[in-house]
């Protein structure tokens, strides 16, 4: 075996470790993820074996679901007038187009490595957020830390609270999942429990309301999954846990209390709370529904949302700010591509875990948790066009479905990857 063949034989392992490095970038910046992905693609091409790779990808139903979703916005360009904006919006789905590459290099036996890389990065971000919090509120003479936004309550180091809190919510769920369902040494159990506590506290001082709601849902889901054979107990414990966490955070965190009270006030008085955070989202949603009802079959196209929104906003709610997207993933897909967009998003969130429901492995619970997390947060933001959160969704989907494919409607298996 010559040197090139030896190198090619090692590429699958090299690419898997590079993929773990991409997982590490999720809570930080997207730029390193693009660079690492370019190296993965380069090595993937050098490795060869294209017939085998493409045969595997063609037989994997989740590949077609992700590609179908990624192509909806470009297809809607056929009825868009503003092509420049449409292509910009379509480009935000780049990670979905890279899904086949990530799936092709992900190794089933390395899933824990990918999760560990993600948790390590989340933990580092969390510790930096705590430093920022202490420096801002208590030890103001300390050197300023790394902060994405210099609002007086913003403590997330690399991304703002909009993306930080959902990422933190998934990290907390994964730690809780390990504590409940994995065999851990006493030392690991204590470490994981400690970091789960610190992540929980960090969640409620970071200000991201979408992630906080998702976090409570993830903790409830863990309880339901743990006591799945005792549904009455599971529901009672889940409700008690979420209520307890909410009340504790409400009493202990001034920021959380303020943002909850503010959200309630803005919901109750949203027509008077012009351009407030929650009020603006409600107004965007109402006007986006109006836009969709004007073109329910095809939508207005990916390029035309801004100009169509300005028209509707001027008609129904002058004085309110216009937006470039509805801050709601469901309405974004419906307004851009009509029924096709809604179906594509529904399939993306629901079909993969349903297809793999009979897979006999340890990742089934996380396969359910990932789309649930995004189903919740996408109500308040278009998280699947946000760089870090879309990367998180695509990477975890690739890892969780690596090595799996359906052989027939009634036959499912997981193939070991070597």
SSE layout:
Layout: H1 3-24, H2 30-47, H3 50-58, H4 61-76, H5 83-91, H6 94-97, H7 99-105, H8 111-137, H9 161-181, H10 186-203, H11 209-226, H12 231-252, H13 254-268, H14 277-294, H15 305-316, H16 329-355, H17 364-377, H18 387-400, E1 404-408, E2 411-414
Antiparallel strand pairs: 1-2
Helix pairs in contact: 1-2, 1-8, 4-5, 4-16, 7-18, 8-9, 8-10, 9-10, 9-11, 9-17, 11-12, 11-17, 12-13, 14-15, 14-16, 16-17, 17-18
How would you describe this protein?
- This protein is an all-alpha fold and 418 residues long.
- The protein has 18 helices and 2 strands.
- The protein has helices at residues 3-24, 30-47, 50-58, 61-76, 83-91, 94-97, 99-105, 111-137, 161-181, 186-203, 209-226, 231-252, 254-268, 277-294, 305-316, 329-355, 364-377, 387-400; strands at 404-408, 411-414.
- A two-stranded antiparallel ribbon has the order 1-2.
- β1 and β2 (411-414) form a beta hairpin.
- The longest helix is centred in the N-terminal third of the chain and has 27 residues, at 111-137.
- The two termini are 19 Å apart.
- Mean pLDDT is 90; it is low at 406-418.
